[in-house]
Every structure is written in structure tokens, then in C-alpha cells.
Amino acid sequence: MESVRRFGAIVGADLRERMRSTKFWVIQALLCMASWWSFPTMEQNYVVLGINGHLRGEYSSAWIGMVVAMLAVWLSLVGFYLVRGTVVRDFETRVWQLLVATPLTRSAYLLAKWCSNMAVLSLVLAGALAVGVAAQMVRGENLQLDLVELVKPALFLAIPSLALTSLLALVFDLIPWLRRTAGNVLFFILWIASLAATVPGMNSAAAREGGGPWLGDPRGMMVFQYSLVRQVAPQLKDEALRTGFCMVCGVKNHRRDRFAWPEWQQDAPMVAGRLFWLLLATGGVLLCAPWLDRAAASCEKPRAASASGSGRSMRLLDLLMSPLQSTQLGTLVAAELQLTLRQRPGWWWLALLFTAGAGMLAPIPAAALAVVGSWALLLDRYGQAALHERTTRTGPLIFSATGAGKRVLLARWTVLFALGALVNLPALMRFGATQPMTALAILIVAASLPAWSLAIGALTGNPRTFELLACVFGYLALNEVAVLNVSIDPGWTSLVHMVMLPVAIFVASKSWVRLSQR
């Protein structure tokens, strides 16, 4: 019983800590809003979880639960950034050293952390389900409340997916180089890749006859596709069921229709497949236990290196920075620039050489992506821009001087703007000679990115929000969306960032005052 009490104490303490944070309630509010807007009336010009581009299920408890379960696909992404970091926090605050002295086993500790992650994500999911029930009552298409059918999709589709997200949050905390920016970017890439890998399986599920796909995919999208074939296809008289479904479909009023979904029909292989993913996540947690002590020891090394300010010697940089050191602001700019460049590893310089060369020599579409790649190499600095003093615990010392907060803010923006332009200097020279509007767009985005990184970092108090947004917009740039891709419509890109830049500056300045006074 004592071991159970210790286990429950860790889960409870973690859960209370998470629920006190602003980001938990922000994510909860966002998912609840998304849940409400996922149930539009028949008069509105869109459907959520649309079939054949214009069909949706009648708002029964079973369909409400299925929509929320598919909405949890996004929670499996955002939830990772919400729950990760709890193990690293124990390492850095030396709580782990206290826990080592107790009879609590390594496996039990990690399992408690995983359970607390699951509790947080389950609470967010429960909030979305509650909003779904309210939408069912308000829309009035089917007023019969069936709690079993409501929660079945969440239990069998969403929970295994969130279990794997919770596992990866722990794994990324245990691997030193995945604890910060690299891990945040890698998880986003893995999440996108896993969605792409689901498409062939959904095609197979759509053509399958007989038993359903027993294994499916972690998020249950193949299982849902098979359920559509089994439950919806027989209801369609004038059209065939297409493979796939859209999360949000724009629909014209005369084409909108709905089908009956009174229950979600399951079979034994389908249930076994969902339990497999849940057991896989649980087993993965237990397999991580032998690496826990090594991970805790590795956490001390970066702290020591950061405290010493060590880095490579760059005499040319010292020479170039010496004229700046005649003023307080110039001294801060020089120090920030030296700190950033001296601690860049060798692979970073090689990657910068590649992106800079591509920006100069590659065809224009590839050169524009190389520009985005150069900014991506600064993502760790963008993410930590507003949080450096808190991370190094030097805030009380640095901000004690009169006006130091404003000077540090201005110096940090200046350095990041200069770096954002310098890493793309070859592309600026190329486009400046051939496409001046594109070169101007690069400079404006280079000014906008550090402003937004400072604003979001100071507002949220963590780097993960900006890093996730950067990953999303980077992915959109690959898909030729012009927010960061300066080759698509440089005039529009420049205009958007110029209009939004004052907003970023205002948010950064207001949030920075609060951050510097802590």
C-alpha cells in the first residue's frame, strides 16, 4: 500500500502542477472551442468529418463521440508539447535526487509520469466531449444521450493515440539531444510522416471485405475508414463511398446531407488492435527505466557548460564586435552575438553552408525553401529568446539595473534580426539583383520572426509554443503557402508581416515587462 501511495502522490502532484499552468487551460479552451465548431448546423457552409465532401453523420451520441475522437488527432500533436518536460524538470530541480533515496522503483516513477501525462490529456479530451454533448442537445437532431456510445470512440481510438504521445514525451525527455528544440521539431516531422503513412492503409481499409483491420494505425483513422465502409456505404444510393474523409469541408447548401450513425459497430480484431497500441505504449514506458539514471546524469553536463559560457574561440568575431562596445546597448548586442555564434556546433556551420549555397545557386523555388531552412537553423535561439535569463537563472542580476529590461529586449531583437538576415546573405544578394521584392520580403520576415519569438516566449513562458508554430508554418512553406515562402507572392508576404509586426512588438514589450519583474 505504501508503494501505491507514493505512486499516486507523484501522479497527483504532477497533475496539480499541470492544471495550475496557463497553457493547460489555453489548450483546454482551444479544444473545447474546436469541439463546438465541429458540429455546425445544416444551414452553415461547412461540415466536419465530411464524407464524400458533403455528407456527415446525424448528431447522435455515437457520432458526437466519433468526431471528438478524430479531433483528438490534433490533440496527439499539441498534447506532446503540453505534457513534455516533466522528467527534465525533476532532473533540473533535483527532485529526482530526492526520489532516488526512496523505495520507489525506476519503472514505477516513469509509469507515474506517463499516467500523469495521460491524465492531463484525458481531461482535455473530456472537456471536448462535454462540449460535444452540449452541442448535441442544442442542435437537437438526436436528443437521446447514450454515454456508452459517446465514450467508445474516445476509449478505443483516442486513448491509444494519446498513450503513444505520452510515451514519446517521456522518451524525448530521456534522450539529451531531444530535450529541447531538436526534439520539438523531430516530433512534428514524425507526426506528419505518420499521417502520410496512414493513407495507403486507409485505401486498403476502404477496399477490405470481411474482418476489419486488426492493427490499423495509432490514431484509429484506418479503423474509422473501415467503419465507414461497413456502416455508411450501404446507406448511399446515388453515389459510391470515396476513400478518406475531410476534417473540414466547405459545402454548398443544396449538396449537404447526412446519414444515420446510431452506434459504432466494433468486432474483436478491431478491439484487439486498439488494445495492442495501448499495451505497446505501456511496455515502452517500462523499457525506458534502465536509461533513467543515465539521463539524469547527462542533465548536469549542459548545465555546467551553460554556466561556464564555454564555446569556440572566434577572434575575428571579437574584432568585428569591438566597435559596438562603446555603448551599453552595443555591448549587449556584441555579447548576445558572441554567445550565440560561439556555441554553434560544427554540424550547424555545415548546414548553414548548404542552405546559404542553395539560396545563392538553386532554382528559385528551392532557393526560397533554403531561406526557410536557414531560419530553421536559428529556431533554438528564437525559441529561447525571451527565456534565456530564466533558463540560466540570471534574471535577478541582469534586470536589476535601471532600464536593463528594455535594453536586453532591444539587443536580443537586434541580434536575431541581424542573424536572420546574415544567414540568408547570399540569397539577399541574389534576389536583390534580380527580384528586389523577394529580397525585401526576406528582410521583413527576418525582422518579424524575432519579434514574434520574443512576444510568444514572454507571453507563454515556454519555447515550445513558438517552435510548434514555426514547424507548422515551415510545413506550409513546403506546400507553397506564402507566409514564410518568399517566392510565392513576396508582396503579400511582406504586407502580412509588416501589418502584424506592430502587434508582435506590442505583445513583446508588455509581456517582457511582466517577465523581467519576476
UniProtKB/TrEMBL annotation:
Transmembrane segments: 21-39, 59-83, 118-138, 150-175, 181-199, 275-292, 347-378, 413-433, 439-459, 494-513
DNA repair found in the keyword field: no
Keyword flag Transmembrane: yes
Highest taxon of the lineage: Bacteria
Keyword tags: Membrane, Transmembrane, Transmembrane helix
Official protein name in the record: Uncharacterized protein
Organism: Massilia polaris
